[in-house]
Structures are given as structure tokens and as C-alpha cells.
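[Meeting: bench + compute handoff]

Bench side (C.D.) handed over the final construct sequence. Compute side (W.E.) agreed to return the predicted structure before the next meeting so the bench team could plan truncations. Sequence as handed over:
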Amino acid sequence: MIWGATKTKSVESIEVITENELSPFYPKIDEFLNQINQIILDKNQQTKLALCSLLAGGHLLFEDLPGLGKTTLASSLSHLTGLDFQRIQFTNDMLASDVIGINMFNQKEHQFEFKQGPIFTQILLADEINRCSPKTQSALLEAMEEGNVTIDGTRYELPKPFWVIATQNPLFQSGTYALPESQLDRFLMRLSLGYPSRSAEKLLLQQNSRHTLIASLSSVFLQYEILQLQQWVNQVSMSDIVFEYLLDLAEETRKGHHGLSTRGLLALKKAAQAYALIEKRNFVIVDDVQAIFVAVASHRIGLGEIETLHLMKNVAVKG
């Protein structure tokens, strides 16, 4: 190669998923959203984004006051997806081994045996994750990034799909620890349910308990269907206009103190592809990016939802 010459790289073409392949799943997506919206009332966009997070293969963080339905939503998602579910109630005295497991000595066999922790599941609800110490929080980092855990030099694969739904209480409450930026970045989205509307809250008072309603849910998807959809999300096409819009958004965030990283930009792309699939399209439009931008970007750039929304509105769509 001549010094100073520019080497031209060919762009590998990505196979685009067809409508014929996706269309059999559209009724299931509708049924999924219909059932979960009967449990979580008046939060249609949040439940759609939760499904988007699952199909994009990304983890989900809920930040809210206690008692606003975060755990109820996580339980509903596990029932409707038909996946194995475990819940960890984080406390300030928890150890990393309480999450991932520990090697225990078997006196009968005279050897160590690995006892799996609750992380060995498909949907893990990390409830009130910011009530434990940062050291214990870090036990989830490898699992969330690579889908495995390492104990005493031995690597153990986690089930697939592996999806963490974490809840955290506001930091002004006592006994909470802020999640480190490295762990926040592992969550594809951060959502907030907020208080329900007056009409929705009245219906909650009139209906049976949420536990009874959740128990009556039946799974909509099979495990292999979730894995198939996660694979197909990567084949949802994007036009050059959408790519340029994503880059413009990233540049706008970088004008401040803490801008969107390259990993965050890739997360935007993946979430937009999953949202387009839920909207029954095999291609992404700018509206998909705008629908997921606040949930994907706000916790990465250290801004609230309103500030992130204003930032997005500063970026014009070109073309």
C-alpha cells in the first residue's frame, strides 16, 4: 500500500427482512400490547417501548417512586413472553455472590461445585437495584454486556434470551446509591411510568388485584420466536436520511458536557429498528427515531426527559 493513499473499503450489504416474513408476527405483537395494556393502564407508549427494548435485545431501567407499577409491568412481561423469570430484591447488605452464585465445597465428592445464583434466568427483575452497593451492582456488568458470568476464572453462559429489567428509586430517597455511568450505559432504555390518570386509577380501584390479573395471562410468544424477532431487528432497513439524522442528533448531544457515545449511537439505531418492526414496517423512518430518542439517550447524556426532548427538537431533519 502506498503511504498517504486512501484504502477503499466495500460496504457489506445487509440482507433486509421482508414483509412476508414479518407479517405472521404482527397479530402476536398486537395481542401482546393489548394484554399488557389491560394490566398497566394508560401507559401505552411505555409498554410499547418496553417491548421495543426486548426485541432490540437491550436491558431496561425503570426509575420511579415505589408503588407505581414497575414490578407489575416486569411480571406481566415475563408471563406474556413465556420466558423464565427471577426476581432479586436488592438490599444494602447484598454481595455479588448473592446475584451470580458461588463455588461451594462438596464434602462428599471432595470438590467445589458451582451453585447458580438467580441471574441464571431469561428475565431478571433487579428490584430497587440502587439500594445495594456499587460493588454488588457491578456484578451485573459482564452479564448485561456479554450474556455470561465468570466465577473463579470459569465462564458460564446465561440462558438466551437474557433480559434485565431493573427498577430504581429516586436518589433523594434514603439508602440509595447512584448507578455508575458504566452501568447506566448497559441499559438500552430508561423509562418512567409516573402516576396514572384519574380514570385509570379509578379503574384500578374497581378491578381485582393486579396479581390476580397477571396470573390469568397466557404467553403470546414462544422462546424461539423472541430470538427470531431479535435477529430480524438487525435486518430492518434504514435510509441515508435516517442515518444522517442519527449522526446529527449525536453531534447535538456532544455540544454539552457529556455527549452520546458511539455505543449510545448504536443503541439508538437498534432501538429505532425494533420500534419500526413493532409499527409493522421493515424500514425505519425519522418518527421511529424520535419515538425512542428520549428513552435511549437521556440517561446516557445526564439530562432529564424534558431537557432531552428539547435537545431533539433543536435538530432538523434534512432531505
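W.E. noted at the follow-up: The CA atoms of residues 234 and 273 lie 7 Å apart. C.D. will use this when planning the next construct.
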